[in-house]
Amino acid sequence: MLRLLCGLGLAAGVLAAEDSAVAPVCSLVPGWTQSGPARTYTPDNLFEYMDGNSEGYFLYHFQEMRGVTCRQGDTTFAIDVSSMEDGEFAYGLFSTTRDMRQPEYSVGTGGQILPRRLVFAKGKYYVEIAADPEGDYTAALKVWAAALEKAVPGTASIPAAFSWFRKDKLESLRVVPESVLGLHILQRGYLAQYDYGKAFVVVEESPASAGAVMQQLRSRLGATTPEKLGEEAFQATDPYLGRLCVFRKGRYIAGYAISADRTDAMALTTELAGKIQ
């Protein structure tokens, strides 16, 4: 019976030491064996492993990383699973680390496979594999992607707000953990990049706090022109952001920063307002 239970635990592919920690194991895919000890990192020591790249994880509210290096012949896969504060932050980390020049791969909430790299988000977890040495490991990474997707808990739905942004001429779309549009008063939200400018949605705790932020934004921008959209709206011009059209709808502050001439900021912003639920 003890052997049977152990076998079932290995088949699951991860050992959940606690609610926030998921540890990958090499036996998840046949033919791979562990090389060296398993890894555990927290915000206190992640910099020791990430070689200067830990700040990007901290921005998305990193909690803990569990990892292991697996070997098959001369090939090694460094597999790491990071737990973030919530699923939105996990997907946010993926949205900033993926290569926008390459297509996504359908795994978890969103993923990508390159010749030597796999990344994906699922639930509050961010999963990554780095392959060594040089070579194309796409086929093996796809096997690992399927196995890890089943083993890592959580839902595989992207933030609902992503559906609010128009897809035409979209260059990138990501979760921004702080300073949306580079403005400190615009905290956590979403940012879409187009060839003509940027669209954004900022999420506040309540309509009252969103109203206070709108007032701060007016003061920051100086001269503004009132518009009839949502509960309140205005247009303004900023030397760095270009033409701005901003509105508030409940606890959401959203709009466009347009850098291209002959682009109707008000029409785009009205369309965005109609999609926010």
Can you offer a commentary on this structure?
With 277 residues, the protein is an alpha+beta fold. It has 2 domains: 10-151; 160-275, Protein Transport Mog1p, Chain A, CATH 3.40.1000. Helices cover 26% and strands 36% of the residues. The chain has 7 helices and 16 strands. Strands 3, 4, 5, 6, 7, 8 and 9 form a 7-stranded antiparallel beta sheet that branches. The protein is elongated, with a radius of gyration of 22 Å. The termini are far apart.
Distance between the termini: 52 Å
Q: Largest beta sheet, briefly?
A: 7 strands, antiparallel
Number of helices: 7
Range of strand content: 35-45%
> What structural category do the secondary elements indicate?
alpha+beta
Averaged pLDDT, please?
91
Oligomer: single chain
What would the principal axes of the Cα set say about the shape?
elongated
Order of helices and strands: HEEEEHHEEHEEEHEEEHEEEEH
Radius of gyration in whole Å, from Cα?
22 Å
Note poorly predicted spans: 1-13
- The total of beta strands comes to 16
Helix content: 25-40%
| Number of spatially distinct domains | 2
